Amino acid sequence: MASNPLTLKQTAFVNAYLTNGGNATEAAIAAGYSAKTARQAGARLLTNDNIEQYIENFKAEMEKKTGITIERVVQELARIGLVDIGDVIDNASDTLKVKDLADLPKDVRVAIAEIQEVEGPQGTRRILKMHSKIEALNLLLKHLGGFAPEKSEVTINPPDLSSLTDAELIQLRNLEAKTRNGKKTNL
């Protein structure tokens, strides 16, 4: 696929990356990189021209074979997330009834997860189960960047100054004072 063949480790990384949903850190670990440096290794590997080309070619090939594109998946999620239950229910009578499938537009049908017909004392009734609107909307928001990044706490431990001489401590205090007063300093 790529102009230069990938090494075995790069191939393992790419295969893991393409099957784990695009998590480069996990892919690097799966390919045998150290867990300590996996994040950096994954980021570095994704900038490798041969790996980039391989991934692009693979995605294009899968899109061509399946006809599934990101745009198509987003449209399908939007159909599920934005469907109006009123388009599914026939409320012309006193009781709620599910409309006939033939009367439902495709945009509405894709939001239906399951329809069961159950025989009972009052006759046949339909039970309708829809795909989760909340889940579809959450996936859409995530894809569209609608969620603020998760906040992470940062703990800063003060440096150990016990080994500094008095002269170094004075120099450090003066530097800190200059910085607080907005003076530019060269370190």
How does this model look, in words?
By secondary structure, the chain is mainly α. Helix content is 48%, strand content 11%. It contains 8 helices and 4 strands. The chain has helices at 8-19, 24-30, 38-46, 49-66, 70-82, 106-109, 133-144, 166-180, and strands spanning 89-90, 97-98, 112-120, 123-130. A two-stranded antiparallel ribbon has the order 1-2. Strands 3-4 form a two-stranded antiparallel ribbon. A hairpin with a 2-residue loop joins strand 3 (112-120) and strand 4 (123-130). Helix 1 (8-19) crosses helix 2 (24-30). The radius of gyration is 29 Å and the shape is elongated. The mean pLDDT is 84.
Give structural attributes.
11% strand; 8 helices; two-stranded antiparallel sheet; mainly alpha; 187 residues; single chain; two-stranded antiparallel ribbon
Short structural description:
The protein has 187 residues and is mainly α.
Output the strand order for the largest sheet: 1-2
Proportion of residues in helical segments: 40-55%
The total of beta strands comes to 4
Radius of gyration from the alpha-carbon trace, in angstroms: 29 Å
Largest sheet: 2 strands, antiparallel
The SSE order reads: HHHHHEEHEEHH
Poorly predicted runs of 5 or more residues: none
* Number of separate helices: 8
Distance between the termini: 49 Å
Strand content bin: 5-15%
The overall pLDDT average reads 84
Task: Output the structural class.
Answer: mainly alpha
Shape: elongated
Summarize the helices and strands and which ones pair or pack.
Elements: H1 8-19, H2 24-30, H3 38-46, H4 49-66, H5 70-82, E1 89-90, E2 97-98, H6 106-109, E3 112-120, E4 123-130, H7 133-144, H8 166-180
